[in-house]
Specification:
Low-confidence stretches: none
Bound molecules: zinc ion
Order of helices and strands: HHHHH
Distance between the termini: 43 Å
Number of strands: 0
Radius of gyration: 23 Å
Helix content: over 70%
Strand content: under 5%
Shape: elongated
Largest sheet: none
Mean pLDDT: 85
Length: 120
């Protein structure tokens, strides 16, 4: 995962637009992407145009190419929510791993040298 903290450049954001639309970015990149697009008019417009092209063209024959901007707004909210949920989940897994490593450590030490750690 990309853990760089600095803001993304417009170039990077615009390169990631197709991946964002397909929800192929990892949660960190998704959150940086959404954060950038909310504050950068140029990238928001580029996202809107690419969304219309990528999604709209597929819909032309199915006659459902209506209100794509509303759909895009919903996609942004959905991807952002998924990314936040994924980050929360990975934090819980991380804490659980530490917890079980500590508990496991106690049992290993107790098995090797009985009475060394277990106080009872
Ligand atoms: Zn930008």
């Amino acid at each position: 995962m990309n853990m760089k903290k600095e803001a993304l450049s417009c170039d990077t954001v615009q390169k990631n637009i197709p991946k964002f639309i397909d929800n192929k970015l990892d949660s960190y990149d998704t959150l940086s992407f959404v954060e950038h697009v909310k504050n950068c008019k140029a990238c928001a417009e580029e996202l809107s145009v690419e969304y219309l092209v990528l999604v709209g063209v597929k819909r032309l024959d199915s006659a459902s190419a209506f209100d794509l901007n509303k759909e895009l707004a919903e996609l942004i909210i959905r991807n952002e929510a998924k990314a936040k949920q994924k980050r929360r989940l990975s934090r819980i897994v991380f804490l659980a791993a530490i917890f079980f490593a500590i508990i496991g450590g106690y049992f290993v030490a107790e098995a090797l040298i009985p009475g060394s750690i277990w106080p009872f």
